[in-house]
User: Which sequence fits this backbone?
């Protein structure tokens, strides 16, 4: 999980895919945190992406960095604990403080469960990580 966290942090921007009905929906994300051995993402509870993850928690994440790319398949699990939101804000304050506060009733954090991450390159064998 640490390799995946580091990879996403170094990318800066990664793309998260959800499903709405029979249509895939992809959008850029940029904030991740590691908390209690889990990888967390953050969004606003007013956004469609949040509603989509609650309706169908299966997500995919993709990003590219330094000639490699990553694909992550996981389930997004909502965590309503304040401690998880505080950790996300602490790790991503420069970006998130412009959009959220920990107790604004908008900021929602979700962790990845049953995740499989594969890091690919043009020159080597894929590296598969599960967490």
Assistant:
């Amino acid at each position: 999980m640490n390799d995946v966290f580091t990879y996403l942090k170094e990318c800066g921007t990664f793309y998260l895919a959800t499903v709405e009905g029979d249509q895939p929906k992809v959008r850029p994300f940029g904030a991740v945190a590691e908390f209690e051995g889990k990888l967390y993402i953050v969004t606003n509870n007013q956004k469609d992406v949040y509603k989509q993850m609650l309706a169908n928690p299966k997500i995919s994440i993709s990003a590219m960095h330094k000639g490699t790319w990553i694909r992550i398949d996981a389930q997004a699990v909502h965590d309503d604990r304040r401690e998880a939101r505080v950790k996300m804000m602490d790790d991503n304050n420069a970006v998130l403080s412009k959009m959220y506060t920990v107790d604004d009733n908008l900021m929602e954090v979700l962790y990845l469960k049953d995740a499989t991450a594969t890091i690919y390159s043009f020159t080597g064998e894929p590296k598969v990580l599960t967490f």
The chain is about 25% helix and 50% strand. The chain has a mean pLDDT of 97.
